[in-house]
Write a structure and sequence with these properties.
The complex is a heterodimer of chains A (about 550) and B (about 250). By secondary structure, chain A is of the alpha/beta class. Chain A is built from 25 helices and 19 strands. Chain A has a six-stranded mixed β-sheet, with helices on both faces. In chain A, strands 15-16-17-13-18-19 form a six-stranded mixed β-sheet, with helices on both faces. Chain A has a four-stranded antiparallel β-sheet with strand order 2-1-4-5. Chain A is globular, with a radius of gyration of 25 Å. Chain B is an all-alpha fold and about 250 residues long. Helices cover about 75% and strands about 0% of the residues of chain B. Chain B has helices at about 15-30, 35-50, 55-80, 80-90, 100-125, 130-140, 145-175, 180-185, 190-210, 230-254. Chain B is flat, with a radius of gyration of 24 Å. Classes of the chains: A alpha/beta (about 550), B mainly alpha (about 250). Chains A and B meet through β6, α5, α6 and α7 of A and α7 and α9 of B.
Chain lengths: ~550, ~250
């Protein structure tokens, strides 16, 4: 620990910070003042576009020194005003791990990647060599990885390499900016395990997290800083206080709240006076067990409350069998000169159903979705459209909405999709999706949630389609935007249309889908009713998937009911 | 000492030594307009690849196919229009491998294309791009921000290709298939906008990440792996020079 830390100097001290980016009217951060003590673990939470990453980039002066912005207020890191030092000088105090794994890698081998920051600081090669092995071990990677090519690594392994690179810097402050947003659940769990090892190692480092996936993280966190959509700091509380005592504030801000806090809020609303303040569903189960034992009269209220909470997070069961729309018969797909991505896969889609397509990164989900929608042709087997669906266009909503935008304004984007005699629908459709006030903005200027809604709307408006496939529709969205998109997707259900949702977000799949198909290395390993697949924890774990919150307490609920 | 001794593998030689030798060979192949010289030079490089780099002859032939095709184009053009190049060939006073001056000039061009191909292939095959850029940064004063930008660009290429594929699929879905092909052709430049936006965003993130880790310009930095010159480099350079002189003398005498 440095002298500065020992003397009680805060790790980060921000006073009246406001940031406005060039060519933007709205402030990214508005009059933010906060203090983070040395050794503290802090989670920075806020809606998409709420200024979280901006705040992180102000800590080493990247905003405004490299990213043009008008900045008012003072930022001091370990007692030093950021304005007085250059970005490279401050790099010794703050290490970053960002969300876009592939854009961060700047060397071709693992050891070069980890050594990069140290070489920039003129650390002696012998010392770099020593730190390299230690960092790899801390990040949970074998030493043999040193000479591996970064391009041959999986997404999870790349993120661990970047984590090792940050650890090797031995900086007093480490910032983790949505480090697992591009990873599948198995890789996410492995990354958080490495972060937890780091956090468990002592209080030498100050850790600042920006993240949406709260279950893994909250047990490590001392304090949550909550920003609102206008970039104002509206709360700085321990997690239990924020998510239980000030739950309404967090929910109003549109951020993700831990499912355990949502559950307890619902139970308290139903009259169960629970004093416990769990942050994870495992803690919630223990707390409910104790409460039910303490007050047997609460058992019924807890059971009913838990059922209701669980029910709103699951798609209602379908009673009718729809007509078959699309049949895939032993299909396979291998790009020219490449390995097989899909093999021997058979599946039938029915009208009126929403199918969830899940699996690890690289399992072939997007390729299958593109084959379903007719964008790609299978290289083996047969794809057949059945009945009325034959000859009608299928639609696919891409993971990156920008890939499919063709209009120069939001209004033009939608108009380009509508037939010539349907142009009068533009206003009504945009109003319905809450995009009318942004009608003259360029689609690229919208927030992630708005882009996503516009892309779905543009695809649906193109005409009645018997099949709508959505690729990772909730990627990068906050709780409010996900809720809006979920309603938009659910509103597209028709008796003569099948919807396919490709997602790593099994909570979204649970809330929308009637059936779930699981892909593993290009093969369909299971396709069954959603409650059967999503309730099978052992199977999901074997597939590298995380059970959705709505099913996690099912066993406990069954025991209570019995 | 181990027996049999390990062969002198080209990849153990410093990339800058190999770059110097490759540039020297390319300069010689460019300046000497003689089919026999080109043939001997190509043969010498091919033998080095087979003996030192253990490249299979078939693999080598396959790799040289594009260069052979380009060379064949030159040869064919010379045979079709013999007057101009034959006169040029004769004016150089170079010894004739073939009796017909036009065929001789064509063969020289064909073999020159092959020599270029073999020299480039030998360099690329035996050199790790990371080692080359590192050597350029440490020994040839290539600024670190350019060196690491090259690394980043190498990382981007697969994603760029994937992005372009996705954008083309997305556009094909939204295209009006009833529109005439000319109208559809006019929409092609529109592919550049999302591709550019995606690339600029990735590049900005890469720049932010590198700067946040202390990269700046100008800068002094240490290196975990130093790019060094050893005895193997001296042996390699002397051998490369001797082979070149030997090839030149042999071609001149025959």
């Amino acid at each position: 620990m440095s002298d500065a830390d020992a003397a009680g100097t805060p790790a980060i001290d921000i006073d009246g910070l406001s940031v406005r980016y060039s060519f933007r009217e709205q402030l990214a951060l508005a009059d933010v003042s906060l203090r983070i003590e040395a050794g503290e673990r802090v989670l920075l939470l806020g809606p998409s576009g709420g200024g979280k990453s901006t705040l992180a980039l102000c800590l080493n002066g990247l905003v405004p020194k490299s990213i043009a912005a008008a900045v008012v207020g003072a930022v001091r890191v370990r007692g030093r005003d950021v304005r007085d030092g250059s970005v490279p000088e401050l790099a010794g105090d703050i290490a970053y791990v960002f969300q876009d794994v592939d854009s961060q890698l700047c060397a071709l081998t693992v050891e070069d990647e980890i050594a990069f920051a140290l070489e920039n600081r003129c650390v002696a090669p012998v010392e770099i060599d020593r730190r390299l092995d230690a960092a790899l071990e801390q990040a949970g990677l074998p030493v043999e990885f040193r000479r591996r090519r970064t391009q041959t690594l999986s997404g999870g392994e790349k993120q661990k390499v970047l984590l090792a690179a940050a650890l090797a810097q031995d900086a007093a402050i480490t910032v983790f900016d949505e480090v697992t947003s591009q990873l599948d659940p198995a890789a996410t769990a492995a990354t958080y395990a490495a972060v937890a090892r780091l956090a468990g190692g002592g209080r030498e480092r100050t850790l600042l997290f920006i993240d949406h996936k709260l279950e893994h993280l909250l047990p490590l966190i001392d304090r949550v800083l909550l920003l609102d959509a206008e970039g104002r700091l509206i709360a700085a509380e321990p997690p239990t206080t924020l998510f239980h005592e000030r739950y309404a504030l967090a929910a109003e801000a549109g951020v993700w709240c831990p499912p355990a806090a949502e559950l307890f809020q619902a139970l308290r609303g139903a009259g169960v006076a629970l004093a416990e303040r769990p942050l994870t569903l495992a803690e919630a189960a223990d707390a409910l067990e104790r409460a039910a034992g303490r007050q047997p009269v609460w058992r019924t209220a807890i059971r009913d409350g838990l059922r209701r909470w669980s029910a709103v997070r699951r798609a209602p069961p379908r009673t009718d069998e729809g007509r078959p729309l699309l049949r895939l018969d032993s299909i396979g797909f291998a790009p020219r000169g490449g390995p097989a991505i899909l093999a021997d896969l058979s599946l039938t889609l029915q009208g009126g159903e929403i199918l969830g397509l899940v699996g690890r990164n690289g399992a072939g989900k997007s390729t299958l979705g593109q084959i379903m929608s007719g964008l790609l042709a299978p290289t083996r087997g047969e794809r057949r459209m059945l009945g009325d669906a034959a000859g009608r266009p299928m639609r696919f909503v891409f993971q990156n909405p920008e890939h499919q935008f063709v209009g120069a304004t939001v209004r033009a984007e939608l108009a380009a999709s509508l037939p010539k005699d349907g142009q009068e629908q533009v206003e009504a459709l945009l109003c319905e999706a809450g995009l009318w006030p942004l009608r003259d903005a360029h689609p690229y200027e919208l927030s992630q949630g708005q882009k996503r809604r516009l892309s779905v709307l543009a695809v649906v408006a193109a005409g009645a389609t018997p099949l709508l496939v959505l690729d990772e529709p909730s990627y990068g969205l906050d709780a409010r935007a996900t809720g809006q998109l979920q309603a938009l997707i659910a509103g597209q259900r028709r008796a003569d249309r099948a919807i396919v949702v490709i997602s790593h977000d099994l909570d979204l799949v649970a809330a929308l889908c009637d059936r779930v198909a699981v892909l593993e290395r290009g093969r369909l390993v299971r396709c069954d009713r959603a409650d059967t697949v999503l309730g099978d924890g052992r199977f999901l774990a074997a597939m590298g998937l995380a059970m959705p919150a709505a099913y996690r307490l099912q066993g406990w609920l069954d025991a209570l009911a019995a | 000492m181990r027996w049999p001794p390990e062969p002198l593998r080209l990849r153990r030689v410093n990339p800058l030594s190999k770059l110097a030798a490759a540039l020297l060979y390319i300069a010689a192949a460019t300046l000497v307009f003689d089919a026999l010289f080109q043939l001997l030079l190509a043969a010498a490089v091919a033998v080095a690849l087979i003996a030192l780099e253990r490249v299979g002859p078939l693999a080598l032939l396959k790799a040289m196919l594009p260069f052979a095709l380009v060379g064949f184009g030159y040869l064919w053009a010379n045979l079709l229009f013999p007057a101009s190049t034959a006169a040029y060939s004769e004016s150089l006073g170079a010894p004739a491998l073939l009796r017909d001056p036009a065929a001789n000039a064509g063969a020289a061009l064909f073999l020159r294309a092959l020599s270029f191909g073999l020299i480039s292939y030998a360099f690329v095959r035996s050199t790790d791009p990371a080692d080359l850029v590192r050597a350029l940064m440490q020994r040839a004063r290539l600024p670190a921000f350019i060196g690491f930008s090259v690394f980043s660009a190498l990382q981007f290429l697969p994603y760029l290709r994937d992005d372009l594929r996705q954008i083309r699929l997305a556009r094909s879905m939204r295209a009006d298939r009833s529109a005439p092909w000319r109208a559809r052709l006019r929409t092609l430049p529109g592919l550049a906008v999302p591709l550019l936006a995606s690339t600029v965003r990735k590049a900005s993130r890469a720049a932010i990440s590198m700067e946040a880790r202390g990269l700046h310009h100008p800068m002094v930095r240490t290196s975990l792996r130093a790019s060094t010159f050893a005895r193997a480099d001296a042996v390699f350079l002397v051998c490369a020079l001797l082979v070149l002189v030997l090839v030149w003398l042999t071609a001149a005498r025959l």
